[in-house]
Predict the 3D structure of the following.
Amino acid sequence: MNRLNTNDDGSLISRFKNGDRKAFDIIVLKYQKKIYGHVYRMVLNHDEADDITQEVFIKIYRSISGFRGDSSLYTWIYKIAVNYTLNYLKKRKSDKTVSMELLPNDIYANTDKLGDEIDQENRLRLIENAIASLPDQQRTVFSLRYYDKMSYDEISTVMNRSVGAVKANYFHAFKKISDYLKEKLKENV
Amino acid sequence: MSKEINIEEFKLLLPDYVSGMLDADQSSKVSEAIKLYPELRKLYEELKLTASTLSGFNFPEPDDKYWETLASNISNSVKSLENKKQGSFLNFRYFAAAAVLLIMVFAYFQKDNLLRLFISESTREISLTDSSDSIKSDKELKVDELKKTETDSLLTEDTEIVKSKKKHDLKSFKEETLVESTYEEEEEFDNLFQSATYDLTDIDELYDLTKDEEEKLIEEILNTN
């Protein structure tokens, strides 16, 4: 029970502010999978996700002393990760884009039915590309809502947008993925 | 209008509905709406297919070793950041210490220079004062000399006056005394007078004589006589 109490976000922040550097290591262990996961879904590349995740945590380390607790540590960490990743993507856009041309030609073979009949690899590529086709903001909302199971309120805090705008973003993202998949299926029938 | 608003609201709830992310109350409302509105039902069918594609699919996750490496990398980065920060703080401290030392050294030399300047200025001032004093003293000497000369001159003049007065007094005395004296007596007196006046040639002695002494001298002469 005590262990749980000392490892909750509030306690970790207090410990860190009191000079306990190990508290930060615990924060890293607690959030690294989530942050890496989100970043990966945004950049769709392991090496880039790895670098960005490290950078995000260094940024968190630098700023954590100024964390006032207006929001939860969880949303605050995500906010940093989301902003950092969006900025990274903006920069990267001029260098390279994830395009359909990069995918193997046989990816969409035998995709007349979604689900069981698509092998895991093809399915992975298809979904990755469907997600990659989304505008950055919609992709962020989709990742936070669908994969991280964040509430609209939390996403609203993380992205500094209204709940209504976030809901609309999520709907459009979902619809676009649906349209993308439908289109790809038609192409391969 | 009301129907359109409701459909739009339900549309926004559909992704969560097909993903099973709505609570029971919301979920039952959306189910009712789907039954009521064909447009909503069509959209639901599309999204449901997408949801089934997405469901069960997970992005590839690195193995446990990766997370250890990632945490360790972050920890090392943070440590190096701390060291850098500490190093820069130390550097700053060294720099500050060096700066203070430099200022002190500069101040020391400056102080030395200032001291030298002060000394040279003081020396110059003293020399100026000395020369001024010397000029002054020369002047004063000259003035004193002049004064002395003047005084001497005046004294000589006074002496002459005194001498003349003495002579006159003696002469008058002689005349008064020797009205009825003989020639021998007169001659003797003259001799005495000569010797007396001769004694009075010493300026200082004459100058120092007071009225009483004068009278005393005359009396002495007379007594001698």
Summary: The helical segments of chain B are 2-18, 24-36, 38-54, 64-177, 183-199, 203-208, 211-224.
